[in-house]
# Entry
Amino acid sequence: MNTPDAIVHRPDYGALMSEPLPLIPEPLLQAINLQCERDKRILFRELSFSILPGTVTRVEGPNGSGKTTLLRILAGLNDAWAGDLKWCGAPVANHREEFLRNMLYLGHRPGIKPLLTPLENLRAVMAGRRPVSDASLNQALQGTGLAGYENVPCRNLSAGQQRRVALARLLIADEPLWLLDEVFTAIDADGVAAIEALLQQRAAEGGAVLVTTHHDLALPNMHRLVLGKGGVTDER
Amino acid sequence: MNAETRPAVQLASSSVGALAAMKGVFARDMKVAFRQRQDLLNPLLFFIMVVTLFPLGVSPEVSFLSQAGAGILWVAALLSVLLSLDHLFRHDFDDGTLEQLVLQPQPLFLLILAKTMAHWMLTGLPLVILAPVLGVMVHLDGNSIAVLCLTLLIGTPVLSLIGAIGAALTLGLRSAGVLLSLLIIPLYIPVLIFGTGTVAAAAEGAAVGAYLALMGAFLMLALTLAPFAAAAALRISLSNG
# Structure
């Protein structure tokens, strides 16, 4: 008996209610009646939610419930869906360039060239986003614990280290919206804590994070979006 | 959560320009290719082998070779470009770089144009440079060799550009090789016909201006349309992946 109607997430405004004129921020990203079918199986239907600035939302669900598909749809990588997606109140399709400029997506595949060094990889990625000096690139790599590996080809690095190269982007990212798919894979406990801190920091800065993980993510005030088999439930 | 500690969302209004982004894509592809030089040699070796096997397999007669030489070189160049096409997007698809490319804020067709240009520099251009040597080997006269190189110089970018569409379309498939050839070869045939036709006309002493103009038209057509088609095909392939 779940209600698959419009499910809208709102952050806790309890603290704000006593103050005059509570400012309800405009959602960064809004999904309305999203429906997706894969291999003639409906992954989700009538899925509606809002990603508000200042929030971290965890997408949950068993394997095959469509977490990755949902993130790929939101990022614009998957076209096989119906419904509405809005970026800052306007349809994403009409503001694609602006949306891409302000969205950072990290998927299962880290987007790292095995033949290039971490520095070259990071430089190549940022070449399409915004100009960043080599000094800050190096700093980002050091920040992810890759100091001393800047000039080693990525194929000689461990799986976790390769993932850290991709995650170094989070340290220099200026995009307010992060869509992160299973970013904790192959990352050690210290790394996980550092990423959790980054997610919270981004939210505190007014950004928004949507993350899928099977890892026990423990952030205060975290939103949850639960995908089930064929249905959607929403918990806070 | 406290509203005061939360600054307003800063939406970026500008990003890297398309030209700078294209440079970035081009530079990365070049760097990756030069880290893996044996892959660069493959199409080149194939080209040399096919051309050297013809005199051995068919006839070493000067009369035959000078007649068929231009055709042999063109067919070998075409097949060797075809052989290299699968690599155009495959590695990027597998390691996730392609996803990030599609998510760059610049127009995708420009980024694909940059990738295709890198592909041509790494496969087509070496063939053009090598062609005079092999032309001498198959007893083409000087004028024919010059015209042959010119047609290859105009024609091989067309092969890369058309190939990009096929490579993008067959990206999500496990055994893409055969389908890629079936899709692409019919589109290569006009280029082949006019490429060899130009050299044949030159050998007869006829004017080749009109032929070259037509090949130039092919190149312009491919330059302006193929990146759009390849971009659309890439989105479809990624959407299924």
